[in-house]
Structure formats: C-alpha cells, structure tokens
UniProtKB/TrEMBL annotation:
Matches recorded under Pfam families: Acetyltransf_3
InterPro entries: Acyl_CoA_acyltransferase (IPR016181), GNAT_dom (IPR000182), N-acetyltransferase (IPR051531)
Residues of the N-acetyltransferase domain: 12-180
Keyword field: Transferase
Protein name per the record: GNAT family N-acetyltransferase
Lineage: superkingdom: Bacteria
SUPFAM superfamilies named among the record's database cross-references: Acyl-CoA N-acyltransferases (Nat)
PROSITE patterns reported in the protein's UniProt record: GNAT
Length: 187
C-alpha cells in the first residue's frame, strides 16, 4: 500500500495527514456541534497544533489518529484511529480508539467503518491485547459507535483529569474491547 496510507475500507482511506487537511480540520474543530462534548471549540492555532501532533505521532510510531478520507471524492471527513493517551488516566497505560468527523460526514456509518479497520490494525498488525475508548457520559453518538464495535462499558466510570473539577463534561464512561472478544466476534 502507498507510503502514507495505513489501510482502506470499503468507502474510506485512512492515511497520514497532509498540509491540505489543516483547513477542513480547523473548520470541523470550530463547529460547535462537533465540539459539543469538549470543553471548547478549537482556534485555528490549536487545531493546526493538533494536526501536527497527529502527523508527528504517525511519523514516529507508524500509527495514530489517521485522516479518514472518502475514496469516492477524496473528501476529508475527519480522523479515526488509535492513540496512547497522554493524560494520567486511572486505567493507563492503554491504547484508545477515537474519532472526530465533520458534521456533514455523520449518519453514514463512516466512523464505525473506519473504526473496524482501526481495530483490525490494532489487534492484527500491532498485536494489542486490549483497546479502550472513553467519552463524556452524554456523548450518545460516540457511545453508540463503541457499542456497534462490540466494546463493553466498565461498571465504574472515571473523572477525566484534563477536565476541570465540577465541570459537567468531567464524568466519563470507559469501554473496553479485549483481543479475545474481538476475535470471538469474527471481525
Ligand atoms: C462520534 C461520531 C464520530 C459518530 O458519528 P456517527 O455518524 O453517529 O456514527 P457512524 O459514522 O458510525 O454512523 C452511524 C449512523 O449512520 C447510519 N448509516 C447510514 N448509512 C450507513 C451505512 N451505509 N452503514 C452504516 N451505517 C449507516 C446508521 O444508521 C447510524 O445512524 P443513527 O446514528 O441515526 O443510528 C460523530 O458524532 C462525531 O464526530 N462527533 C463529534 C466528535 C466526538 O464527539 N468524538 C468523540 C469524542 S470521545
């Protein structure tokens, strides 16, 4: 497969970031609907810095939060992929699966499709034993993706250390997918 392309799914290409992704990524990060479950939308500088971090981590590790691009027209949809969280999370060390798509790309199954490919990459190529995902309690769309992937919610959630105490977004749920459960699902 091409240097920058990690893998393809039926409708998507998951790849390394390019400079041309910065503008649509900034638009997505400035959209209040997309950023509803984050403390605040991102400024252009914050968005560019996040794209740079994603790009550097993929360059260093060979994997990360990849750009999800639609094969049919090359459109930038957002990111989906794997990441080692840097925050001091109570269940660290771990590898999380995460996603953030532009509003126009919701409701088409793209996040779940890309995430299935990312799970196969994580369990298959990286040989991970477990992949986790987490989000603030009210983020129903993100939780629905986790459930479609066969992830199971831990009985006890956690307070995200990067969100200020008493902030309504601080309580999080944690979903886990052990390698054996992924294999048993026949994915
Ligand atoms: C979380 C997020 C990626 C989920 O996106 P999504 O579009 O709801 O999820 P999917 O891509 O899996 O699409 C599923 C929907 O597409 C529909 N769909 C349409 N065509 C489909 C197809 N061909 N195949 C599968 N599903 C399809 C499904 O029925 C489902 O619809 P529903 O939500 O009405 O039940 C998106 O809401 C987002 O980017 N949110 C902002 C960022 C964020 O909160 N990230 C998570 C932080 S932890």
């Amino acid at each position: 497969m091409d240097a920058g392309i990690a893998f393809e799914t039926e409708r998507l290409r998951l790849r390394q970031w390019r400079e041309a992704d910065d503008a649509p990524f900034a638009a997505l990060n400035a959209d209040a609907a997309v950023m509803r479950y984050f403390p605040a939308p991102l400024t252009r500088a914050e968005s560019d810095a996040m794209a740079d971090r994603c790009r550097s981590l993929i360059a260093a590790e060979g994997w990360g939060f990849w750009v999800a691009e639609r094969k049919a027209d090359g459109a930038f949809l957002g990111f989906v992929g794997l990441h080692k969280p840097s925050a001091a999370l109570p269940f660290a060390p771990c590898v999380e699966i995460g996603w953030r798509l532009a509003r126009h790309a919701w409701g088409s199954g793209y996040a779940t499709e890309a995430a299935r490919g990312a799970l196969a990459y994580g369990f298959g190529r990286l040989g991970l034993d477990e992949i986790v995902s987490f989000t603030t309690l009210a983020n129903a769309r993100s939780r629905a993706v986790m459930e479609r992937l066969g992830m199971r919610e831990d009985a006890v959630g956690f307070e995200h250390p990067a969100v200020p105490p008493c902030h309504p977004l601080r309580p999080h749920c944690l979903y886990r997918l052990p390698r054996a459960a992924w294999q048993a699902s026949g994915a």
